[in-house]
Every structure is written in structure tokens, then in C-alpha cells.
Write a structure and sequence with these properties.
InterPro entries: LysR_HTH_N, LysR_subst-bd, MetR_PBP2, WH-like_DNA-bd_sf, WH_DNA-bd_sf. Helix 5 links the parallel strand 3 and strand 4. By secondary structure, the protein is an alpha/beta fold. The radius of gyration is 22 Å and the shape is globular. It has eleven helices and twelve strands. The protein has three domains: 82 residues, Arc Repressor Mutant, subunit A, CATH 1.10.10; 94 residues, D-Maltodextrin-Binding Protein, domain 2; 104 residues, Periplasmic binding protein-like II (D-Maltodextrin-Binding Protein, domain 2, 3-Layer(aba) Sandwich). The strands form two sheets. Strands 3, 4, 5, 6, 7, 8, 9, 10, 11 and 12 form a ten-stranded mixed sheet that branches. Strands 1-2 form a two-stranded antiparallel sheet.
Length: 312
């Protein structure tokens, strides 16, 4: 018998292209994922993909099951939403704030999808807040906050969405371009371009510069990512951004990117919600949609660590 978990695993394998990344996506060890796939192959008496190919090459049987997954899993999601409505639990309000200047690339498709499927839930992204979003969430002025800087607050629950690597964007002619990575001391003579937020909320400071007791020669701020890229491309500074926020600029060869440290710096993006709303079907569906949309439209991100998932 084919189970839904089998179909979800096959989708993860198609989307990631590798057993290692698919295992991370569905929160299994690679051994457990391989066992599940072998179990499915024994049930259908056919190989589903060609081993040791990257990206994964599916057999005719595998492609047929993927077509089944594409057909069935969206209907399962739709049925789950319908059942929530029948139970009378669909009413709600979703006012959110975003502590992430480059989040709209994946958040807007999530909001559009959610609005189409949960028209009864009032959704808004208010602008012009002159208070900290997380305390406002605790005070019920907001219902969800996208943040990479979780704070311990009573009644606030953090759901990890995905992990991302911070990279340093530099001009294509910069001396850093082409290097595998840089050390913190390399930024001591550079102009660092950042968003206009506190340094304590920027990974390049907290994870990279501050531990090495290094400060850039100059700090310059810009409101928009495209403005930052124009400054970088023209050689007026360098800036650290999430890997996925740089994808389109790197693909267009507009700028170059280099790792921050030999092992890079990684952070996790969270959705902060109040504990009492965590079990609401519409909230669970929004969070699930946010994760699925992120992995569908962003490059270079990874699932949250298991300890982050369990601690959330």
C-alpha cells in the first residue's frame, strides 16, 4: 500500500535532487529515508530512481508516483482546510510584521496563496509601526512576526522556517571576488553597507565581526536590497545578505559573493506566534505554506535543525 509519507518523500527527493537534502527536508536520517524508499520500491516491485545520479534521475515508475503525488497531496491539503471550516475553527486574524528586509520574495506568494484558501481569516501587514514587533505580538497587537532574532517572551512560540547562509556581496572587480572565504580582519578596511537596523540584529556583526573584535572602516546604510547592490556593484562598499537574497544578482553576474569565514555563518528565520494560536488550523496551514513556498522559490536554504524544531 502506498502511503502519503511515501509521496511526500518522493516530492522532497525531486525538489532537492539528493538523498541527503531530501532527508533534511522531511526530517529523517539518510538511513531512515533510504529504508523508506526501499520499502516503497518493494511494495510496487520496481526501482523508483537511478542510484548515484545527481540530480536524481527517476524511473518510469518513479515518475508515475510523482504524478500521483502532484495530484493527491494538494487535494489532501484542501480536504484538511475544508474539515477545519466544517469544525467552525476558520475564523481568525493574521496581522504580521516583518523583521527581514528581503523576505517579500517568498512571503508574498505565501500570503497570496493563504488569502485564496482562507478568505475568512483577516490578513494584513500593517506599516508604520513605532514599537518593537515581538513585544507587540505578546500584547496581541500583532499575530505573527517574521524574525531571525528570537527573544524569550512569555506566551510567544517560535516556529523555525528555514536556515540560510550569510554571504558577503562584493563588486566583481573587488580583491575578495573569487576567494573561497574571508576572515573578519579583512573587513577592517572596508565600507560595510547594511540595512538601517541595530548592529545587534545583524549576523555579520554578532557572528562574524564582534567575536573577532573587528569593526569595519565605515558603515553605510541603505533601505532597499537593490540600492545596496548598486552601491556594491559600483565599488562603494560590501554588504552581507542571506544567500537566497543574492541569487538573482549573482545569476545576472551583477556582483560576486564570498563566504564569511571558512565554515560560513548560518542563521535561522522564525515565525513568532502566540502560543494560544499555535493549534489553530489556519495558522498551521499558513506556517506549512510558508515553509513549502520558501523551499520552492528560494535557493541555498536548508531545513531547520531537529533541535530547533523540537525546541520551538
Amino acid at each position: 500500500m502506498i502511503e502519503l509519507r511515501h509521496l511526500r518523500t518522493l516530492l522532497a527527493l525531486r525538489e532537492t535532487g539528493s538523498l541527503v537534502e531530501a532527508a533534511e527536508r522531511v526530517h529523517l536520517t539518510q538511513s531512515a529515508l533510504s529504508h523508506q524508499l526501499k520499502d516503497l520500491e518493494s511494495r510496487v516491485d520496481s526501482a523508483l530512481f537511478v542510484r548515484k545520479t545527481r540530480p536524481v534521475e527517476f524511473t518510469r515508475a518513479g515518475l508515475r508516483l510523482l504524478a500521483l503525488a502532484d495530484e493527491i497531496l494538494p487535494e489532501v491539503r484542501k480536504a484538511e482546510r475544508d474539515l477545519a471550516r466544517l469544525a467552525g475553527t476558520e475564523q481568525g486574524r493574521l496581522h504580521m510584521a516583518i523583521e527581514c528586509h528581503s523576505c517579500f520574495q517568498w512571503l508574498m506568494p505565501t500570503v497570496d496563496y493563504f488569502r485564496d484558501h482562507w478568505p475568512e481569516v483577516e490578513i494584513d501587514i500593517p506599516s508604520g509601526h513605532h514599537f518593537d514587533p515581538l513585544p507587540a505580538l505578546a500584547r496581541e497587537q500583532l499575530d505573527l512576526v517574521i524574525t531571525a532574532d528570537p527573544q524569550p517572551l512569555d506566551g510567544v512560540h517560535y516556529v523555525p522556517l528555514f536556515r540560510y547562509e550569510g554571504l558577503l556581496a562584493v563588486a566583481r572587480q573587488h580583491s575578495f571576488a573569487g576567494q573561497p572565504y574571508i576572515e573578519p580582519s579583512a573587513l577592517a578596511e572596508e565600507t560595510l553597507i547594511t540595512y538601517p537596523v541595530e548592529q545587534s540584529r545583524l549576523d555579520v556583526f554578532t557572528q562574524f565581526l564582534a567575536p573577532a573584535n573587528v569593526r569595519p572602516k565605515e558603515i553605510r546604510t541603505a533601505e532597499l536590497t537593490i540600492m545596496m547592490m548598486q552601491l556594491v556593484a559600483s565599488g562603494r562598499g560590501v554588504c552581507a545578505l542571506p544567500n537566497w537574497a543574492l541569487t538573482e544578482y549573482l545569476e545576472r553576474d551583477y556582483v560576486s559573493a564570498v563566504k564569511l569565514g571558512e565554515h560560513g555563518i548560518w542563521s535561522t528565520l522564525y515565525a513568532a506566534i502566540r502560543e494560544e494560536s499555535a493549534e489553530a488550523p489556519w495558522m498551521q496551514d499558513f506556517l506549512r505554506t510558508a515553509k513549502e513556498t520558501s523551499f520552492a522559490v528560494l535557493s541555498g536554504i536548508k531545513p531547520a535543525n531537529r533541535d530547533e524544531e523540537s525546541a520551538a
